[in-house]
Amino acid sequence: IDKTFCAVPKVLSLLKYKTPYIHIDGDLFITDRKKISEVFDSDYDVIVQSKEIGDTFEKHYGDQIKICYDIIKWEKNYVNYAYNCGIIGFKNQLAADRCLTQFMFMWSLCNYSLESLKKELHLFKYTDLNCLMEQHLLAHTCFKYNFNVKEVVPPVQFIQKGWCGGVDPEDRFFHPMGQSKYSETLTDYRDWETDRKSTRLNSSHRL
Questions:
Q1: What is the pLDDT of residues 65-107, one digit of tens each?
Q2: Are 87 and 28 in contact (CB under 8 A)?
Q3: Integer CA distances (angstroms), 114 to 5, 60, 93, 143, 149, in order
Q4: Residue 6: count of CB within 10 angstroms of its CB
Q5: CA–CA separation, 141 vs 103, rounded Å?
Q6: Rounded CA gap, 97 and 195, in Å?
Q7: Is-contact 200 26, C-beta < 8 A?
């Protein structure tokens, strides 16, 4: 598996589950377990961390999606938003099967055209082929099949705050973006927060 596709092992693991579950990435830190558990218990087919829209979507996805989908000959009509998968889970088995198998199919297409994709996409400052596959494809599939998606943080509340990246305004979790998670400042804050009250989860949470 090329390192470009870092979500593939995660998806292969999720495909093994046949009961409702929630997966939380190892770089997402729960700061209020009780509050976030209430969200997990709500009604949905699919649950995600948040929706990436507007300027954030255009900067990280935008033209890159068009180039990628043209190369692999994917669908030309697609949604203009993505779902951040720091938190991802399914209560609807059909939704899980559709979303995850679509990912694996797209992976095979991208893998076949990997050199062409890397050649074209390296021109962009913000490009992550893995995110195009995992996060935009999830949004597109949920829209296409009309699955009920629960966002832990609604778009109107989602904020970005310097080095801390994805900060939940209700202080239930924080999810540092990209390389910011390796900064000395963030590491110090993470250690302090973990010692104080947070729990770092690095595996799936069964409902």
A1: 888 899 999 988 889 999 988 899 999 999 999 999 999 999 9
A2: yes
A3: 10, 19, 31, 27, 31
A4: 14
A5: 9
A6: 38
A7: yes
